[in-house]
Design goal:
By secondary structure, the chain is α+β, with helices and mostly antiparallel strands. The protein contains ten helices and 19 strands. Strand 9 and strand 10 (311-312) form a beta hairpin. The N and C termini lie far apart (64 Å).
């Protein structure tokens, strides 16, 4: 049904004189539940359909979207987007992929990624699991309050067709949870949280163990101290280390290169990390959140090393930005029903190292183990980096006490060149990294 439906829209657009067009239809079923202090606060179930129609006429581009896919509304959308595209400014770089570079969709290849969980939890099961998640944390007597817990499941189908012969369809599932609790009493309270996101519901793990762990994390932060401003080595726990890869992505996004606002704009094929560092973008990993066979513009995806032996290999691009920097498309185009394509990562991760985190901690004479980051002041143009943080003071290889209200500052160029990865890489998000030891950062306190 979807294929004929989209094909009919493209035929009508062609009759309207449109040069090129593509249509994206998303259909999703969603369930979520939340609780606080042992009581279910909200349970939601929804089914959403959204269509996005993008048209190109004489180097002008326009997009329109709607959650109403009734025939009468589709007719109105076609009329409206056809008129809109006539009055928008020209964009010399817009346009669909040439037929010769489009990868033909193969349903078996898509299934090989194992992105669809056949198991669908009931609302009753979600309610039971989310209460178990929070109550296992509240069972610890030192936990005095809760911000609550949430658990969600969704199943979505994306179908896309273009006038250039592009066609793809994929069904994906996604489950995630978050829980946050507080330990201590007024004047000495600390918060800890845990969040996990997976394709398969069972991969979220044991909810009771997750709750118990977040309780222990909150208690460990009690009686935190402030420390004097100094320069020292810092370990980013794996829970927060992926934020540095997000900074790396922003600096290697072709749109930043085009605008001239990236400190890495002249670093293509040059060393920006130590020689043993590899950062990989792999869209072909099974059961991972951002896997896909072809990108949002029909370009075949493949594993690529963004950083190989410390050297920057490429910039993330979509078709438009690839044309602007005069490079081949990297296979990172992505779009939603209401947005034109832009570049994004797939499963981006920094390969694990040889050292255990506990050995990294033992190696510190004086330093900080960072377990939470907040706020952000990052200048992509020159790499200046500053973030609020909390964690633990380490001295002579021992964790001494929790620290709070500190700021970590440095420059991303130096951070990238000095970081040392631990061996505790896990895949819980779209961007993942092991714990990282960073040398000689400024830790601002009192």
């Amino acid at each position: 049904m979807n294929k004929n439906f989209l094909e009919d829209i493209l035929k009508k657009l062609k009759k309207k004189g449109i040069d090129e067009a593509d249509v994206l239809l998303t259909q999703s079923e969603n369930k979520s539940t939340s609780c606080r202090l042992g009581k279910i606060e909200k349970t939601e179930e929804s089914e959403i359909q959204e269509i996005g129609i993008r048209v190109i006429l004489k180097k002008r581009q326009s997009i329109i979207s709607s959650t109403n896919i009734e025939p009468k509304n589709i007719k109105n959308l076609i009329e409206n987007v056809t008129e809109m595209v006539k009055v928008v400014p020209k964009d010399e770089f817009c346009g669909l992929a040439e037929k010769k570079v489009i990868t033909k969709f193969n349903v078996n290849d898509a299934k090989s990624l194992d992105l669809h969980d056949s198991y669908e939890p009931t609302t009753q099961e979600l309610n039971k699991k989310v209460i178990s998640l929070e109550e296992s944390a509240l069972a610890n007597k030192k936990i005095t309050n809760s911000e609550g817990a949430e658990l969600a499941y969704s199943k979505s189908k994306l179908t896309m067709m273009g006038s250039n012969g592009l066609y793809s369809e994929i069904t994906k599932t996604h489950s995630d949870y978050i829980v946050a609790v507080l330990a201590g009493k007024k004047g000495n309270m600390e918060r800890a949280y845990d969040y996990k996101s997976k394709v398969f519901f069972e991969d979220l793990g044991d909810f009771e163990n997750a709750g118990k762990k977040v309780a222990k994390d909150a208690i460990k932060k009690l009686y935190s101290k402030k420390i004097k401003t100094r320069k020292c080595d810092v370990i980013y726990d794996s829970k927060v280390s992926s934020s540095l890869l997000s900074n790396l992505f922003n600096a290697t996004n072709a749109s930043s290169i085009i605008k001239g606002i990236s400190f890495l704009k002249n670093k293509r094929n040059k060393k920006v990390f130590k020689s043993n560092i590899n950062v990989v973008d792999d869209p072909l990993m099974k059961r991972k959140l951002r896997s896909r066979i072809i990108d949002g513009e029909g370009i075949k995806t493949r594993e690529k090393k963004l950083i190989e032996n410390g050297v920057l290999n490429f910039f993330f691009n979509c078709l438009s930005t690839a044309r602007q920097i005069k490079e081949n498309p990297s296979g990172h185009g992505s779009r939603s029903a209401n947005s034109i394509p832009s570049a994004t990562y797939s499963n981006l991760y920094l390969e694990k190292g040889e050292f255990k985190k506990k050995d990294m901690i033992k190696s510190l004479k004086k330093g900080v183990l960072i377990t939470e980051l907040m706020g952000s002041s990052i200048n992509l143009s020159n790499g200046d980096y500053s973030r609020g943080a909390s964690g633990f003071w380490v001295e002579n290889g021992e964790i001494c006490y929790p620290v709070s209200e500190i700021t970590i500052a440095g420059n991303l160029k130096d951070i990238f060149l000095s970081l040392i990865p631990a061996d505790d890489l896990e895949f819980n998000f779209g961007v993942n990294a092991p714990s990282l030891l960073i040398e000689n950062l400024t830790v601002a306190g009192i």
